[in-house]
Each structure stands twice: as structure tokens, then as C-alpha cells.
Amino acid sequence: MNTEATPMSPASDVDRREFLRQSSTATLLASLAGGALTRLTGSAADPAPPEKKQTAPVSIGVIGCGSWGRDTIKTLAQLINAEVMGVSDHYEAFLRRGKESAPKAEGYKDYRQMLENKSIKAVVVATPTHQHKQVVLDALAAGKHVYCEAPLASTVDDARDIIRASRQHFAQVFQPGLQHRSDPQRHFLLQFLRSGAAGRLFKARSQWHKKDSWRRTSPNPEREKELNWRLDSGLSIGLAGEVSVQHIDNASWFLKEEPLAIQGYGSIQLWNDGREVPDNVHLIIEYPQRVLLAHEACLGTSYDSDHETYYGAESAVLLRKNKAWMFRESDAPLLGWEVYARKDKDTFFDELGIALVANATKLAAQGDKPVEEAPYANTPLYYALEAFLHNVHTISDGVADFTENFDATDKKAMKEYLDSLHKALMPSAAPLEGYRATVLAIVANQAALKNQRVTIPKELLQVS
Questions:
Q1: Region 71-84: what's the mean pLDDT?
Q2: Which residue from 78, 217, 359, 417 has the least number of CB within 10 angstroms?
């Protein structure tokens, strides 16, 4: 549903002693050393998740069958509550590959024809970023629930128009593709960091490395230009937008703040092929109280891949994909549970990291070998789409209940009724969170292109 994010309750900012008082040693050992994710009892910041119920599959369509669209289709195939009934792409080769991943789906060269199919209740928008706006507006107008990849748009005006449209269609779910907002491991770590167990957070660092030119070839010059939209500065918000959007949003979420300014540095170092979009970007993102996030994204190397580190006065927490470790300072007080938790050695710095594991068995968490993971299952995208499907069912049932028992023309009353279902929804990115992440990505790209510091007015992060 199109409810906006609300500020965290002060009850979430418990100190370390309160954290230990509220959670027994057994609970901490279970949650931090490998048991199922356990939440702080009575914490308003992290309410118990709604019960997952098996319901009739949601008939869904995927618009955009490039590599990410096909990953989306394969991920949906892992979810019992999803039935991919349509795939759309105007490029015949991509459409054919999309249908191969969803044999029961009907193929559409024009997504608007898919939107006319009344049996399809929801869509995933996986087109290039600059095409999102019109597709989202058309999908909402057609009565579809919409999951839109992040960033939402390549301009602030387009992103703002999307949010305004989602508010008008409040009886439909609109979920931005900030995948980590639905990931149980992230919610587990958020609870851990907010408890103060790592001490006061005073800086963060993140990176994304992948050696890839981003350039795609085609025997058709027109198609080659279309394929390389990410290299067109008139269409693309570059690495800062297409990659860094997730990292910046994660930091804002964990630090519970919005940035005040972004200093950017961008350059073309390896792929000097006439492009205008940097292949190497460094960002310094300034949060209140001079807390800084140092982030870099690079197409010139795959070394050290992608990860995030949050530095607290007593511990640093390292996140790499769906795993996390805590590195304690020598003068940090002993909390107790970490004595029994699994220790993994950082082979480069020769330090022991205390494994922070959510939703794993105790045996897996304490074992020496990593757990094998199935492709497309239990990834951040999996959890985001799972939440989307659950919330589509919840809101659809809410609309049906209201229509049956009350005056369906009373839109204000219907919105209030749907808002009351908030606790029944699974965690996901709110529309305004998607807008803010998009705006920050756009500002970061501007800063990197101009190699300058750009301040962020508070009003820019709001939609009236």
C-alpha cells in the first residue's frame, strides 16, 4: 500500500544494557550465533512480522526482459505465490528469452497490451530507468499493483510524478525496488545496530567493483544505441545512480538520517571509448553530526567485489552480500553472547569476525563451511518480491472487504481502512523512501560529473 515511512519510535534506541535486559542470553545466542531471527520483545522499531500464509498465486507480468528482467522472472518462479502470466519487451530477442524463463506466460511486444489483460493483477517494471515513469503511470492507471526497480527515474520531476500517481492510486500497492528493505538479514542487523551493541556509529564505507565496460554490441546501430542507454549522459544517471542507489539507501536507513550534501569525483579510467559517463566514481556523503559515508563504484576492477562496513565506537560491522560479521575493539566491554558465537578469520587482516547470522540453523551458523545457496532463492530480490506479493494479497483483500461492507465511493474512509492494515504487511520500501533514494542517486551523479560538492535542501526530499 502507498503508506509513507514513519519515523522510528524512541523505544527503538535502547542502550546496550536495555538490549541485554530485554533479551535473554539464550535468545541472543539463538539470534546472533545462528538461530532463527529473533526480535526484541516490545520494541516498536521492529514489530513481529506478519504470519506468512499460502494464498492463491498472484498473476503477474514482467515489463522489460533484459538481464535483470530475466533474473526477476526466474526469482518469481521460486515463489509459490507468484504466477508469471505475461512478459513484455519490444526487442524480439529479449522477449523470446523472457518467455523461455516463463513458459506459461504470454509474450507482448507492447506492454500496453499486457496492461489490458484483466487477469494480470500486478506488474514488475524492469525497463531502463529513463523509461520507468510512463510505464508506471500506465500500469497504475490500468489498476495494476506495481513493483518498480530502483532508481525510480532518471530525473527528479519524473520521480516526483511517480510518487504523486501512487498516492492517487492508494488502493494499489506501489513498491520501489530497494530490495534490502525487505531482507530479514538487514532487519536483523538494523535491530543489532540500533541497540547500541556496536557503540555509536560515526562513519561508514561501501564499495561496488565489477570489471565490465557496460557497452553492449549489436549488428543494428539503432539497437546498439538503445542497448547502451547507460552510457548516454542524457538518459543515464551512471554508476552513482544505477549502482550506488542501493548503497546510499542502506546507509541512510541504518544511520537513521538523510544526507546533507554529497561530494563527488568521477573519471573515465579504463573504458575511454568516447563515453561521457564515468567508469570510476567516488562519493563522500555527509550525514548530520559529520558522520560520513565513503562510497566508490568502479567498472575497472572486480577485486574485493561489493561490501559495506559500519564503524561504531566499540565494534565495526562488515556486510558482504547476505553475510555479516562484527569486529570488536580491544577495549569494548564483553556482552557475553559473542564468546559462544562462530568466529571467522579475515584472511587479509588476520582478524576474527563474529558471525551475525539471521534465518539460519544453529548448526549452519557454527559450522566451518559456508551454506550452499540456490540461485535466485533467498536473495534480496527474492525477499522484496515475496513482500510485494504478500502485500498485494493483503491490500486486495482489504479493498474487497471494504467494498463489501462500506461505501466504496468514500475514498477517504477506504484509505483510512487500508492504512489500518499496516501491521499485516511484510516489510518493504515505501514510495517516499524510493523517491528519496532516487533523488540522492541523481544528486550523487551530478556531483560526480562535476567533481564538486552538492548540498541537498530538505524540501528536495519531500513530495507535496
A1: 96
A2: 217
